[in-house]
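new request in #modeling-help
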Amino acid sequence: MSRINSFAELEKLRQEIKGKRDSNKPCITLCSGTACHTSASESVNEALERELDRQGLKGEIGLRRTGCHGFCEKGPLVVIYPEETCYINVQPEDAAEIVQGVKEKKIIERLLYSDPVTGEKIVHESEIPFYKNQQRLVFGPNRWIDPESIEDYLYIGGYSALSKALSQMTPDQVLEEIKKANLRGRGGGGFPAGRKWEETKNAPGEPKYVIVNCDEGDPGAYMDRSLMEGNPHSVIEGLIIGAYAIGSHEGFVYVRQEYPLAVENLYIALEQAEEYGFLGENILGSGFNFRVKVHRGAGAFVSGESSALMTAIEGKAGEPRMKYIHMSQRGYKEKPSCLNNVETWATVPFIINKGSDWFNSIGTEGSKGTKIFSLVGKVNNTGLVEVPMGMTLRQIIYDIGGGIPKGRKFKGVQTGGPSGGIIPERYLDTPIDFDELTKIGSMMGSGGMIVMDEDTCMVDMARYFVDFCCEESCGKCIPCREGLRVLSGILTNICEGEGKEEELQTLERVAEVMKDASLCALGATAANPVLTTLRYFRDEYEAHIKDKRCPAKVCKNLIDYYIDPEKCEACMICLRNCPTGAIQGGKNLVHWIEQDKCIKCGICYQVCPERFSAVEKLSGGPVPAPVPGREVVRKKE
Amino acid sequence: MEKLITLKIDGKDVKAREGMTVLEAAKEVGIEIPTLCYHEKLEPYGACRICCVEVEKGGRTQVIASCGYPVEEGMKIKTRSERIDQIRKTIIELIAPSLSDGGVVGKVRELADEYGADTSMFMSTFKATPTRCILCGQCVRYCSEVVAANAIGFVGRGVERRVVFLPERASRFCPTCRECYEVCPTGKIAAETDGSIFPEFSIDDFLSGKM
Amino acid sequence: MIGISGIVNKIVDKYQGDRDMLIQVLLDVQSGLGWLPKEVLTEVSKQLGTPLTCVYQVATYYKAFSLAPRGQHLVRICMGTACQVRGSPLIRDRVQQLLGIEPGETSPDMKFSFETVNCLGCCAKGPVIMVDDAYYGPLGVSDVDKVLEKYG
């Protein structure tokens, strides 16, 4: 492939690609994001390939491995084009039938999604409730392209925004467009991207740098991973446009090494972009030069903080530094540096192509555009969802997410990662908006949205986040390092039944000092989960401290496992699986747990057949004495 | 002609040179803001946070570390207040458990007395072995920035962060130097040597889990 | 160790001796050797011209690096929020019971190393563990035995 040297050549190539492809030709697309990898999409791919070969259909039916479609709960996902027929939970054994189905234009009913309420089978991907209520602007293209194919990206219009920017707009005009679009950073801070670009552009000093933050560290969030895995070119294109606007000729991508597929696909995309002439010297004949280097992270959440990231790409330990002078003034090697999140960069080409007015027509007054969220935890339809700003939490969790599984009751939804808070039921009608979420004590964050139900202990969750920050703290400053140690100690005491009432005041005092005096945002916001759970779920703290009771029955020291003799059918399953031999009883003899030997591993609770549900968790009271030797009166099935 | 910035510190009118930090500007007019990790020969580090002050600008008040904050026209600084005192008191209380071996001495003792810190406040949640180190980094930074020997450095992260010597470097440079003994605010370095040319806590101790 | 300077040299050359690439160099070295022996760190310091204190700081700061030999199989458990809410602590405890080691340790027979990871990014399939390059999830407590048995 020879370099594209002009805008006209690019359009010519695009037309050629389009000309070679028949949009009516059947194509089997297979979601190949990492989550689907864990459900064997690799084997499905092999099976489909073998089948196409065996049936001699390789030339007539296409097979494309695409990026993540977002409906991770139901993966591996297969979508047949041009009909857009969607099959869920596909296994390798289904390959033959699928290929046959495509050949004969027949739909395989059993592989379709069925509405959990009506039982109705839905054929087309976009009609599935999970997708119907989304607005998949930035994430949507994942389903049409093979991330290893730049030509797929060109086919759907890729690099046309770059072409437009370089050929029809000056750098200042590009900057104005991004400013007018009111694009706020998608990494958590929500800082206006246009303003950051402008500060970098106007800051004295050369060279200037543009950087992609793909150090997505909020536990429970994987939007950036899936974007980088599934559509790396969209990020690269946005980055080049930004570099042009700012006057930068060198860029970096900082990507977590824990995302091997994202790293691999990024390298492939960069190589192709260079080969085709979108990177390097004299891009598309515009005279603009730009190169990109990749830095892999090595396992440090705090290295995603802007000053820490700059330090890491200088080859040092990625710990934050005092940031009173913005990175846009003095960042990487003390030069003006513009750091934005993956999703922010990926949104740029859309704004350039469709205009800031269009972007402003989506979302709320203070938060424009769409946002990708990772909707996970205790929710039926877990996955990645993209919605316009302004949609409510309730709509996302229930209309898209399908509500709480197994008929359990909603308790809270966590947003903003370790810097955010857990939002209780009464705020479910809060619209997704940077400022609205901050008002109720949480924040938008990078997009993690973890749903929790009545079986989630809020004190345990507060402890979880504090322990996370404790492990990830760089340790440089005293308020964060030592403050988190104290918070962790107190919360652990409470979870283990050793908590004291006055410790709650200590928590608040230490949290206040951390907020005021920490060096960076990790320390300053690490106490948020504690403060919000105290604000909204204080009763759970009181129960742990005063009654030595865990209402959600999670905290090991405060719960006991108990087999209800009325429900036990003496099936021996729990008895056989107990790792310490704590379960006594036998065939036809009711089982009971010897509490001294019980290590609270939870295996008996998990393996007891659902129709018996004889194993219970008790908390805050004595365990009824067992009645050994009692025979089971088997209920007739 | 150097640009002069006008600001107020504790009600006093101050004229400072552009590029000065609040800490430096305060010092010039005789206002001493306490510090634990600051050294005039070293780049400001921002680890101890003891030098935190309140700054009011544009109607908003924030807490900032004066050792690293550049002076700005019209800013109003308060070096003492209920909020600042609470911060300094709590910081001393937070590091006290790490120092319990050698006791709270020197500058840390002075600050504990001045701000009424209860040094046993956080003993119960401190489950590690006291290190007598507050990780201010003066020794590490001095050895790197001033002496350029790089014989002592940071390892680990978070509560596992430690300062260690590298024996192969230390044996070359330390015998004729030992300047870090003076800069250490807790006296740990001087205390933890049995007369040998450099103190006992080395990278090998860290890697073998002894620290 | 034989050949250490050669191994390091090849990787340092790949990055044109650029000091900024220290972390990348260490990642590549570790992916070849499985861990970072002391001699390697000294060699990297020498060849990049970076102070040894900085090399040690980086090698001990980042979780991905191991300064002790690792076991044949690396078991990693995701401690992300979604996995937490779905019961990962019970999974972690079970792995600990079965392997007899805590996170961060390697079994005495050098068969297994066990680590926690702060989010693998497979949140919809939680709780998730990885053994070498293979992902397993969603896991129930009783599934752990079967997974580990596959590796002996």
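bot summary: The beta strands of chain B are 4-9, 12-17, 52-57, 60-65, 76-78, 152-155, 162-165.
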